[in-house]
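Reply to thread "Modeling small-molecule complexes from scratch"

Following up on the discussion above, here's a worked example others can learn from. I took a protein sequence and the SMILES for magnesium ion and predicted the complex. Inputs first:
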Amino acid sequence: MGKEKFKVLEGVFDEHTLSTLDVLKRKKYFDELGHAIKTGKEGDVYFARKFDKEQDGRRAIKMYRVTSANFKKISQYITRDYRFKTIKGNLRKVIMAWSQKEFRNLNLCHKAQMNVPYPYIQMNNVIVMQYIDGGMLKDIYLEDPEDFFEQLLEQLYIMRHEAKLVHGDLSEYNIMVQDQTPYIIDVGQAMSIKNEDDFKQFEDLYERDIKVVVNFFNRKYNLDLELEEVLERLEG
Ligand SMILES: Nc1ncnc2c1ncn2[C@@H]1O[C@H](COP(=O)(O)OP(=O)(O)OP(=O)(O)O)[C@@H](O)[C@H]1O
Ligand SMILES: [Mg+2]
């Protein structure tokens, strides 16, 4: 019965992903799967809708593909994060752990009151989250880039000091803009930094993250940001 709805998507998703979508739909996390927002080798993000009169029923559903290419990239990250030191085993298991990691990281960010898509649920390789009604920073025209950068800096400060995470893949592709406000996405690879030693271990990644963002604003909006100054402002 339920699987009929996703027939059109067969061939795109494997059986296991289809059953997971089925369960999530039955549990009312969404009512209707819509268009693909983004499809890629590693996974897809789909628009979905929950028929809800009171609240915004729009959802984004991220589904990781269970492929060996993903496995390679992912396992190297997971073994660097103490929370996943014990995860070994097959491809599917690692992809599930990875989705769980992204969901947990989203939760940590949300609890720290960052602007991230609200994480509703994660099951197997599927994450249901709030739909961000905007676009990627690389595509959206900023009315006030200085102000936006300040907002972004605040987000990055909270991410490091409250959520205690190093993003690890920050760029104009993983920052969304909704109503001229930054939303940080794609936190699957983010590293937990509970203490100074953890931070030291990922400092290279952290500095790379900030550098990418600083370079983007200097390049695209002709800002005059100094990497060292920005890093200093992000210190505790
Ligand atoms: N919550 C959301 N609301 C609206 N659009 C989203 C949302 N999450 C992701 N997207 C869109 O889908 C794109 C891909 O999402 P994301 O960056 O999380 O995945 P990815 O780049 O495929 O991840 P990875 O690099 O780990 O495979 C984003 O650039 C954005 O355009
Ligand atoms: Mg991305």
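What I'd highlight from this example: The first strand starts at residue 32 and ends at 39. The longest helix spans residues 196-221. Questions welcome below.
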